[in-house]
Amino acid sequence: MVLDRVLVLPLLLSLLFLSSADGLVQDFCVADLSSQDTPAGYPCKPVSDVGYCDFVFSGLASPGNTSNLIKAAVTPAFVSQFPGVNGLGISAVRLDIAVGGVVPLHTHPGGSELVIVMQGTITAGTISSSNDVYVTQLKAGDTMVFPQGLLHFQINSGNSPVVAFVSFSSPSPGLQITAFALFGNDLPSEIVEGVTFLDDAEVKRLKKVLGGSG
Ligand SMILES: *[C@@H]1O[C@H](CO)[C@@H](O)[C@H](O)[C@H]1NC(C)=O
């Protein structure tokens, strides 16, 4: 009898502890977009202000505008467009690539990417940190994954427009296009030449094409 009590009491206490810990679990944390994003996401907006529209985003229904240098449009449903994904480790993008278009070499520092091709044909590839190349052609229905932080690209290699939907393992994966990082800003040409092994004329030409200066 005494022994029973000795065994049962810690069990009851641990159940009590577990159930009070359960009470701290929060169903969601819809972003309060009037605050700043942080590495831990946006602060939560009060539950009393949350409605179904925080969990729905219709911005991926229409094609993006591909009349640009890369002939491609990336339409994001990241946390700043879609506050309901805050804290959930997930987000989406619509990708439209016109004939002859490309999503140039880029990375998402904050998340892995999974692309599902809906229409058209893509040549897609990724380059590992040991510089191994994984490149292939994707057609409608194919899915490819690009691990977090690795360089990758998508080229429309068919003769019709590409539509693809992408999901990310982060509400805010980020997007850095390598060509713009090198040639689309005011990093002085001599430094760009030094870090890329390209000659002065080529660096100046690329700065002009990609909107850089210096
Ligand atoms: C697409 O972008 C181009 C270039 O910025 C612009 O001239 C054109 O009006 C845009 N088209 C639509 C439908 O918004």
Features:
five-stranded antiparallel beta sheet; 21% helix; 28% strand; Jelly Rolls; globular; binds 2-acetamido-2-deoxy-beta-D-glucopyranose; 214 residues; alpha+beta; 2 domains
Alpha carbon gap, first and last residue = 85 Å
Number of domains as seen in the coordinates: 2
Structural class: alpha+beta
Q: Total strand count, please? A: 10
Mean pLDDT over all positions = 92
CATH topology of the largest domain: Jelly Rolls
Q: Name the beta content range.
A: 25-35%
Fraction of helical residues: 10-25%
Q: What gyration radius follows from the Cα positions, in whole Å? A: 24 Å
Overview of this structure, please?
The chain is α+β, with helices and mostly antiparallel strands and 214 residues long. It folds into two domains: 48-174, Jelly Rolls; 176-214, no CATH class. It has four helices and ten strands. The strands form two sheets. A five-stranded antiparallel beta sheet has the order 1-2-9-4-7, with no helix packed on it. The protein has a five-stranded antiparallel beta sheet with strand order 6-5-8-3-10. α3 packs across α4 (200-210). It starts with a helix and ends with a helix. The site of 2-acetamido-2-deoxy-beta-D-glucopyranose has 2 residues, from loops.
Secondary-structure blueprint of this entry?
Layout: H1 2-22, E1 72-77, E2 91-97, E3 102-107, E4 113-119, E5 121-127, E6 133-139, E7 143-146, E8 151-156, E9 162-168, E10 176-177, H2 178-183, H3 189-196, H4 200-210
Antiparallel strand pairs: 1-2, 2-9, 3-8, 3-10, 4-7, 4-9, 5-6, 5-8
Helix pairs in contact: 3-4
